[in-house]
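re: ur question from yesterday

yeah so i grabbed the chain u mentioned. its 112 aa long if i counted rite. heres the sequnce exactly as i have it in my notes:
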Amino acid sequence: MEEQKVDMFLMANAKYFESEQIPQLKSRLKEVDDSKWTMIQSIGFKNPTTLLIVSLLVGGLGIDRFMIGDTGLGIGKLLTCGGLGIWTIVDWFLIMGATRKKNLEKVNQYLY
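ran it thru and got these structure tokens back, copy pasting raw so excuse formatting
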């Protein structure tokens, strides 16, 4: 793939990934053929900041985990009322990283 297209994609979507993931992602995106490129550009990424706000407001119900696709953890948080509040507080610090990890997994599905 053209380096200019890859750079534009990363400039537009860098906030959805961890900064240390970007160089590896850039090298893999350069190797992608044009047939996959359209699908990669149409991926809907979850915004880590939005998930943090959801976690702060209704994290005890597990809605933040349901939104990123962690259904099992969402059910666990729902049934335990956020681990009696402890799990909810821990997730305030972890949810942004978990969201970025899920976004990278989405891209990797199309790269391999």
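noticed a couple things. The helical segments are 3-13, 22-30, 34-41, 48-58, 63-68, 71-79, 81-84, 86-111. also The longest helix spans residues 86-111.
anyway ttyl
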